[in-house]
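Let's do one together. I've listed all components of the complex below, 713 residues spread over two lines.
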Amino acid sequence: MKMHRFEEIWLVIGVGVLILSMVVTGYQTFAMEMGPPSNMETIDPQKVDETAPFDEPGVYKTGENEYEVVMTLQIFSFTPNNIEVPVGSKVTFTMTSKDVIHGFQIAGTNANAMVVPGHIQKITETFNEPGEYLVLCNEYCGAGHQAMATTITVK
Amino acid sequence: MEALKNTILEKTNKSLGVNAEDARLTLTYLSLAFIVLFIGGALGLLQGLNRAGLLELPVWLNYYQILTAHGVLLVLVFTTLFMIGYFYASLSHTLGGLLPKVRKMGWVAFGLLVTGVVFVVTTIIMGEASVMYTFYPPMQASPWFYIGLVFLVAGLWVSGIGVFINAASWKKRNRGKHLPLLSYFAVGAFVLTLLGSLGVTAEVLMLIPWAFGWTETINVMLSRTLFWSFGHTIVNVWYLVAVSAWYVTVPKIIGGRLFSDTLARLVVILSVVLNVPGGFHHQIIDPGFTQGLKFMHVFMSLSIALPSLMTAFFMFAVFERAGRKKGAKGLLGWFKKLPWNDVRFLAPMIAMIAFIPAGAGGIAQTNNQLNQVVHNSLWVVGHFHLTLGTTVVLTFFGVMYWLIPYLTKREMTTKINRLGIIQTIVWAVGMLFMSGAMHWVGVLGSPRRTSYTTYGDNATALGWDPYLFFLAIGGSLLFLGVILMVYIVFNLMFFAPKGNTAFPIAEPEDNASVTPRWTERWGLWVIVAIAVISMGYVIPLVDLILNAPPGSPPFKTW
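Okay, and this is what the predicted structure of the assembly comes out as:
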């Protein structure tokens, strides 16, 4: 099959852009640790309340300016809710669902993760700006989905 | 002797126009398709108004119920009906009539689809299936909802097998010849449909015993992954249907020629071979998959862009050549020579233009980190209202202006042409508002699939309201577009003046090179497709089965 000369140029440029975007994505994922939340641990979705660490959800200090939030998601709430952390905190959210699939999104940041029953999901976000952040469920989870939200106050 | 008889048959078919029985089949499909479009569009309007806080729904009508119906009716039912109706007419025209057996299969498929729609819609209306087009477990709908889905898939399969039988029979009668391009597209689109529906069929067959209570738990991530091997593939099938009209009919409408038969067929093959693993990019921020696997899938998703890049070149080459033949001068003079006041060109042209930002947005959001920014936000809804709601749907609309008069032996009047141009502009402006607002507010964080909410007057959420207002304006314009289109379709079907309308099929260029034989080797391409699907899915599926957590019991949370 003979291709038109301009078509070859067009495809080389097009494919070049695709490859470049892959290189950037790969570099960010593997060299800068910016990859998407991909935790591999599992849990019995019917025994979340009895399984550590979710038997005691809450905010735990794990280092200087570092926190872990152990969180369960259930229709239609986050536990714990209305969290407060100091400015500059690096917060790791360790989450699972007690019922259906939920989403965890902090509006105005890139923190965005699916929380699936049977799986433990982790995502880390550093809060450098003070203020009140809106946390919402972005996966349809039922009749009260539009009410499933909480806040993180950074001060 | 046999060959001679067939040639005569084909010649008569071409001069006398469409076989009446074949026309009836396609017209039945298209009539139902546009009734479904009307209902789905009306539900969309309600959603748009509610989402912007302008309309409070009555208590007996739940936002998520109508959202589920809107999604299923428009993403699955309207498109399926259109595809089968359009491709059966294409086979009838390009292969010298449908085989009686195949026509019967077309009716059987119609019966299966209608049965499926009745099950699905009834369970949604009864409030037993507010589970969205994606029906992720452990949310559990009525078992009859899933059984309805089985009927829908069965309808797709029966119609697909009909296409294969008719194509194979033509090949046998026309040894050494290439299947006409439009029928070739039909074969490719149905091969892709079948490959894409394997995963969801397996999923639904696990969901049915669970929904009846015969099994206690379900593997949530496995179901979700199997769904997406279908959920994204099927919208790419609709895209391929639209693309077939661009390649084969648009050049003829603008007085041009087919740029390259081989390139068109290569695009079909690539679309079939590369497509299915693309669905994985819906799971980029899911747990249970490693970052390495997700990165490999960036490659698999992006590879789907390759045939689209070829299409872009092909179409603009057609436009330029057609324009120059009409005496266009200079670098861009051909642009003005295009028949902008012919709706049969304008509608698919705007559809193609919409695919430039739509495709670019798709490429952006399949890269892992960018996906994390917009996943499950209204951005995604804006994206597929550009790809599916504009690129695919406007092309479908554009096809109606000649396909229906061709089938009913009527002619489009200048009045309908003018109304069609208004319809196209209303649609384009409506989408600009709605999809534009969705993209923008999605980047700010507003979630999809959520009824009107301010999250307790949260300041961030209140800041989204102005964008949602534009969303509602766009949605209202789009419903006006739906009304116009439904009027146009039924006007063309029953009231347009009698006359002759041709089925536009572009001729190859005079100096066209011979299409190579490898384009006909479907056995090989299916094997390659299965190899690519295995590359994408064997590792995650085996992992999800072997390392599965205990399953989930059912929940009805609405």
